[in-house]
Every structure is written in C-alpha cells, then in structure tokens.
Amino acid sequence: MKIGLQIPDFSTPRGPERLGAELATVARTADDAGFEYIAVMDHFFQIGAVGPVEKEMLEGYTTLGYLAACTSRAALVTLVTGAIYREPGILAKIVTTLDVLSNGRAWLGIGAAWNEEESRGLGIPFPPVAERFERLEETLQICLQMWRGDETPYHGKHYSLDRPLNSPQSLSRPHPPIMIGGGGEKKTLRMVAQYADACNLFAGQDTAHKLDVLRQHCEALGRDYDTIYKTAYYWFDTAKGSQQIIDELGALAELGFDAAMGAVANVWDVTPVEIIGSDVIPVVADF
Hints:
Order of helices and strands: EHEHEEHEHHEEEHEHEHEH
Mean pLDDT: 97
Number of strands: 11
Number of domains: 1
Structural class: alpha/beta
Largest sheet: 9 strands, parallel
Strand content: 5-15%
Strand order of the largest sheet: 3-2-1-11-10-9-8-5-4
Helix content: 40-55%
Shape: globular
Low-confidence stretches: none
CATH class: Alpha Beta
C-alpha cells in the first residue's frame, strides 16, 4: 500500500509570512520520507470540516506548481478539483503544465463539485447537481481528447472547443492519471469505470459496498475492475500510535485499496510526517 499526504489547512502557527517556507519544509519532508503523493484540496474558501471559511486557503494548482519545485519524486494531485471551477480546455492545459514542469508527476483529481458557498462567493456559476455531473463527464472527455493529441472540434451540451490543441503534450503517457473522487453510486462510480485510472473514497462503514458497486459498473462497461487504482481518504493521527495506523491501513488493503491519502494531524510540526515515514510506510509497503 502507498501513502499520500493531503494538506487541507494552511493556517500555520507563524502566519502567512512563513507559509511558503513551512509548506516547502513539509513537502520536502514527505517527499524524502517516502510519501507517494502530495495533495491539496481544490477549494477557494476553507471547508467546514476543517474550519471557518475565513481561514487561509491557497489556490490548488498554484500551490502544486510551487510544490513541484520543492520536491523530486512524489506525484502531485488535487483531492479533488471541482469540474465547474475551470473551463475544461484550460484545466487540461493546467494539469499538462504541471506534468511537464514536474517531470511527469501530475495527476488529475476531479469531481463534480459541491461547495455552493465558495462558488457563489467568488462568482463561479453553480448549476444544479445533474448539470454538474454532465459538465464533469464532458470535462473528462475533453481532457482525454486533448491528451490524445486529437485537435478535432469538440461540441458537447455545455462546452464547445474549436481546436483543442495541447502543446506541449504531457510527459505522462498516455496521459496524467485521472482520479475521480466521490462515492455516488449511479454517476460518480460509473464515470470511474468508464473514464478514470483511479478512484478516491472516504474510508468508512460502507466502503466495501462502494467497491462492490464499482465492480458492477466495470462489469456492465466491460472494464477490468483490477485496472482501477483504488485510494481511500484516511486521517493520519500519530497520537494513536503507529501500530493502530498500520492495522487500519491493513484493513483497507484487505478490502482492495492500493493507497491511503489524507491529512496528517499536526503536520506543521513535521515530526508526525517523519514518524509515518519511518514507522508506517516501510511496513504497509508490503500490504
């Protein structure tokens, strides 16, 4: 099993003036410690599960570009981008740029978007849920077309691109891995089976059921279920001891998960990242 660090909270003890340096230290420590992925949220306001909306929040792709220069091996991904936040052709260019400048370490993490408050707050159109999923599917189609190098005009229900040119092309071939986040059984998991290389689910009591639903979608679409890389969102808290973390990750591995990604408690102290690197990652690598 692989381990990924997500950084959801940018309110550091020493404030914004030191945020760049401290973020670089955390990322380098995770990179050196063997974390396979470094992720940030793609939100513009802080989300309620982390804190009040006024808490510091960095724009995701600018942050990943900075982290690309601070690291050398970990894959870089948003967990996850709201499809409605950027026009699909621009999103493909953004992820391609990150991939080229990081020497092939970019992933596209994407979902239908849910945070109406930040969208309304910053003037981003927030259509009804059915339309958001339509836009997600068209975005996936456009990104895949651009990464194929197909410049044929694309005309969908919501997006039209006269010439979806993508130059330079991504270094990752055939394209940066696509991870779809969310456990919606009718639409999200069907899109995972149809378009994605990976899924991301919240670890919980219904996780096994979600994987069964994904398997059913794969069977219906003729997709090999085992070709989908399965990741679970997991909160790393070293206060409960490395062995408990190892046991919980082992349970996820038994369900069929390939990776666990999530926030690390007290991450700005750096020590918890080092503990996971020394005590957890070498053990779970054999799962």
